[in-house]
Write a structure and sequence with these properties.
Blueprint (H helix, E strand, L loop, with lengths): L8 E7 L2 E9 L4 E3 L2 E2 H4 L3 H7 L1 H6 L5 E8 L3 H19 L4 H6 L30
Parallel strand pairs: 3-5
Antiparallel strand pairs: 1-2, 2-5, 3-4
Helix pairs in contact: 2-4
């Protein structure tokens, strides 16, 4: 049995409550998200452009095939998690791309999370109406 020695680079991206497990392999530029085509999973062109920014900035959009497992959150959080994971995977694949990705802010995780609801209040920040009398 012959062994194939193809490089697989794995990285994790996070945003809000979404987690993206990204695997990139040398290929021709196909992106698969949760066993679906990239265009079917993210139909909006603006979101697809946002996600593929790490590939476009580094000029590697035709060099790697991307396989992604997305879990949790909504479409916006998943898009941010996928972008973060893709940037981290590219950094692992080619270390010299780190400066370009870091300068554009793609290696930094977006720290904003949903604030928890407090007891005695209808929401995280909303208070009950104040009655003077």
């Amino acid at each position: 049995m012959a062994k194939t020695t193809q490089e697989i680079y794995v990285a994790t991206g996070r945003r809000k409550s979404a987690v993206a497990r990204v695997r990139i392999t040398p290929g021709k530029g196909d992106i698969t998200v949760n066993k679906c085509k990239f265009d079917d999973y993210f139909p909006a062109e603006s979101v697809r452009g946002y996600i593929t920014q790490p590939l476009m900035i580094t000029g590697k959009s035709e060099d790697y095939d991307v396989y992604v497992n997305l879990d949790g959150g909504g479409k916006s959080g998943q898009a941010g998690a996928l972008r973060h994971g893709l940037a981290r995977a590219l950094e692992k694949a080619e270390g010299e791309l780190r400066s370009v990705l870091k300068e554009s802010g793609m290696l930094r995780r977006d720290p904003r999370e949903k604030e928890r609801k407090k007891y005695g209040q209808p929401g995280a920040r909303k208070r009950r109406q104040f009655s003077k009398r």
